[in-house]
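Why run this: before we spend reagent on co-expression, it is cheaper to look at a predicted model of the complex and decide which construct boundaries make sense. The entries below are exactly what would go into the expression plan.
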Amino acid sequence: MTVSQPNPAAEGALPPPRAERGVIGWLRFNLFKDWRSSLLTVVAAIAVVFALFYGLRWIFVQADWGVVAELGGRIAIGNYNTVDSCASQNCFWRPQAVLIGFVLILGMAWGVAGKGMTRNIAIGAATVISLFAFLPYSWEEMGMDVRLLLAANLPALGVGWLLARYTPLSTYLRISLLAVAWFVVSMVLLRGITGAPGLQPVSVNNWGGFMVNLILAVGGIALSLPIGILLALGRRSRSPVVRLRIPLGNLRKLKLSLPIVKWLCIAFIELFRGVPLLALLFLSQYLLPLALPEGFFLTRIPLLRTAIVITLFSAAYMAENVRGGIQGLHPGQAEAARALGLSGIRTIRLITLPQALRNVIPAIVGQFISLFKDTTLVYIIGVLEVVEIGRSFIQGNIQIWGGADKEYFIFVAAIFWIFTFGMSRISRRVEERLGSDSRARN
Amino acid sequence: MKLIRRKDPESRSPLDEIADTRGEATEPSDEIIICRDIHKWFGDFHALRGITTTVRRSEVVVVFGPSGSGKSTFIRTINRLDEHQRGEIIVDGRTLSNDVRNIDAIRREVGMVFQSFNLFPHLTVLRNITLAPMKVRRLTGDQAEEAAMDLLVRVGIPEQAHKFPGELSGGQQQRVAIARALAMQPKIMLFDEPTSALDPEMIKEVLDVMREMAGTGMTMICVTHEMGFAREVADRMMMFDLGRIMEEGPPEQIFDDPQSERTKLFLSQIL
Ligand SMILES: Nc1ncnc2c1ncn2[C@@H]1O[C@H](COP(=O)(O)OP(=O)(O)O)[C@@H](O)[C@H]1O
Ligand SMILES: [Mg+2]
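The model came back. Tokens follow.
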């Protein structure tokens, strides 16, 4: 195509009004259009300046971040590596190995994705983690071993990238499977194995810090979507039904078709959505053990019970999101698939679900985010997750750290915000990627 | 652009492969669709009130009539998108029943084209066409793609193969929908107002494809109000009203000598 050809569509087309062009034009048009918008602009500008001034002054001058430094590694892993939990050994390396594994997998994702958001996240995360190796603690407080394992994250990222580039581990599917496998291995590694040298068991009840929030969130996110999809499909299904034939005397029968699966799904969804998560967590804590046999593993591991409750709670919401997505589809989509001879299951898998999920990505990611934040609720069963580890520490040392709650909570809030902001950015990107091709004209 | 192709034993196209994988249900009889006294209710509403008719192989039937008269419902009962509650439908020797495998077998032989196209917006044009042949007829990806490209050439838009439906005009989308249905090598094609959602300049391109298809000997039931097309292509026309076939006959009779007052009135309104 040549540029010099006159474009017939351009004939009679005019440039946009002058007021909307250039920086001045933009300002005039958007901020100072009339006296009302000018007033609002000025008031808002003053508010922003004040907020920035006091906010930054507090963060950099007035706040005492000593509590964060004092807690240090406990923010990440709680009391995992204390004499109480891991008596005769030093267990710090186990959570660190888990982290390195995930950074390696992140590197592989980068290797497959190439440039773009995945690369930025991968490099950013690994760099920040590696920089922790240079925190200005004394050698007694933070040993060489800890620092080396932290610094190892950046090379691990590179190894992951190379693996994705030069080995068959170069598809998203394989990497995802690897991530799932590593998650399982991580649980074993963190828990330890009785009798294995160097892997002294650490009771799950002693797990803590941000590690617990992440484990609950990752496990919950990975499981609640598939469970939610099944629940949504179950709720819409009319089969299988239980057919009852109740004889009513001479040859007359009452025939009933009971959509059992549908009812069970509705009951499950409405039950979990209708009760506050906190109440469900308490119930899992005090009621469930009574209903389970003595010594059953669920009765011994409170954290696992909360993990299940959080996942199911989230799955119930997920089910409604997915159902909304399915109902938003034109019924002609499924009809066209069925008319082509595709089976019901294939229609769902190939036509209905991909479109339904794409349409409700924002709701799904919103649910992921709220699940992630809800993981802080496990404090009620005494788990020292990231908020509680600091709160209990401050409570326990009230003479020294009495006023430091606000610094700690703001610190934790910032961590959560960074993660959730990242999640919503990723979701936006996924949405764009999936939407740009097929929605161009619809 | 000629849809008909002589069967040449030397040159086999992937479409022939599909034809080979298809088991005949029974002896092919001349009557490919038999409807006996079909009734259909939506709740209390009696939508089909006893439809009895027979469609022969290669016959082109045009169905018309006022809105809400049950035209869509009628053709949708033939591939079980709507379930009839009384009467009997036999398609290509198979009696429609609730057996899922039976329904799927019939749907494989019956293609359908909708007023609103219903292309799958998350799949490319090519993938829209190859999906069912690969999943249902078990063609390999290469076979299915070759066949799909053949069909796209025949409906005149091979260059759109790798676009998404949302990037096509309405007429192009409907032609893709026709290609998608044909890719399953159906014995019968059902059309439910295929041109009603199209701008005038696109109607012709779709009707051209349908006209060619009729020339290949495809059995077709078309719900349409394109009366020029009907007069030219239809072997028989059916006027629907209030869930019944009000009048039925060759186009000459319907247009030039309609027997029923309703038909006369309706035609005078739309012509
Ligand atoms: N799914 C449905 N539920 C209830 N009523 C329906 C449904 N589908 C069609 N109908 C009704 O059945 C009648 C016939 O519809 P239809 O076959 O679509 O008519 P046509 O295609 O001739 O315009 C209409 O009155 C319509 O309102
Ligand atoms: Mg209709």
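The interface with chain A takes residues 79, 81, 100, 104, 107-108, 110-112, 114, 116, 118-123, 131-132, 135-136, 164-168, 177, 180-181, 184 of chain B (CB under 8 Å). Residues 200-215 of chain B form the longest helix (16 residues). Bring this page to Monday's planning discussion.
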